[in-house]
Amino acid sequence: MSGPRLISEAIPRVAGQVFSKKYIMLGRLVTRWAEVVGEDLADKTQPVKIRYYKKKGQEKPDASLDIAASTADATLLHYRKDLILERINLIFGDRWIKAIRFVPMAANVPLPKIQKKKILTEQDSNRIAGMLDGIDDPEMQERLKSLGEAVWRDL
To answer: Do 95 and 150 fall into the same domain?
Structure first.
């Protein structure tokens, strides 16, 4: 059993099991957001919603993407709109997102930052394993060790 992973890495897998196609696509966008909008705007903006719309007589629906951004950042994104659409459609291999809409977000509200996990040394791992010596069930012991290592990395 491997240790915990970033939520952004698990979103596409979890979304694929639970939600519809649009949530899978939103999960892919979240995991590759810096590639889509650029490193300079990735931590200031975020994809919020994918809206599907179907015109009369159209077989396959098109989609638009809502991006949360401050007014200033939305202006910068507006100039990159065609590039962003191209990058998104390159990721998915299809031109299903046809439009981008910018949703206002307060400029002074920071987006949550992904913290780097602490490196778990062999000594730390052995210390956690030592705490679990009294547990007879090997599967339970392994799961608790994995949990302990995850908690240790988050300290």
So the answer is: no
Alpha carbons 79 and 85: distance in angstroms, whole number: 12
Parallel, antiparallel, or unpaired for β 46-53 and 97-104? unpaired
Whose CA is closest to 47, among 108, 5, 91, 1? 91
**Of 126, 114, 122, the residue nearest 154 (C-alpha):** 114
Query: What's the rounded Cα separation, in Å, for the pair 141 and 134?
Result: 9
The amino acid that residue 132 corresponds to is L
Could you list the pLDDT tens digit for every one of the 155 residues in the chain? 556 666 666 665 555 544 455 566 777 788 888 889 988 888 888 888 888 888 888 787 788 889 999 888 889 999 999 999 999 888 877 777 889 999 887 655 565 565 666 788 888 888 888 888 888 888 888 888 888 888 887 76
Same structural domain, 61 and 30? yes
* Whole-number CA gyration radius for the chain: 21
129 part of a folded domain:
yes
pTM over 0.85: no
Same domain as 81, residue 16: yes
- Residue 138 within any structural domain of the chain: yes
